[in-house]
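Hey, can you fold this?
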Amino acid sequence: MQKHVKKLEDLKEKKSALQEQEDKIKAEILEELSETLMAAQAIEIDFYTLVGGILDVIEKAKNGSKDTEVWKQAGERFFRARAKKKNGKVPISATTVEKGANLSK
């Protein structure tokens, strides 16, 4: 019985560590999204218009819109150009998206 309790405790610790890693990655993605919006001068767009546009994109992406491929290509171009300016550093969201990660719950 003691062996099973120890295994359960170990699994709980691993689960907690993984949750912390997931939270850290999500925070990094949100930070980069914020930086990307600033770099794209999104701050100059009316706030409600910007939020509405983002919500529209999310809805269309969830429903499998054909537009998503065009948006993806535009995003890839944006990050490639941005990475060249930043000494070749590839943004975390670009690498995460390329790996097909889905961090939403």
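Oh, and this one too while you're at it.
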Amino acid sequence: MSWVQLVFEDSLERAKEKEEKEAKKRRRLADDFTDLLRNTKAVTSTSKWEDVRPLIEDAQDFRALSDDSSRKKVFDDYLTHLLHKAKDKERKREKEDKVSFYLEVFVFSIVSIVF
């Protein structure tokens, strides 16, 4: 193996390590920003970026994400998460309501038969 090839492979490995480190940092910053959104009571599944941004723009986790497009993407992903969570909760409530209804019908039927 020539020294040029060794230098090239070493440079390639360093570039790969640097990209992995930067990707990890971006994930951490996005997670921190998500935590900021989660801890901001005004953020709900129906919130608008234009309304939430002024409430959080002075926070360190807001400023740590350097570009607004990244902030907006994390915000949109968080809202999607909230919507899924709300839908799951609604489905669970509907299922519980059905079980309650059928239980009441069953109990009423038993009581009707007995009396």
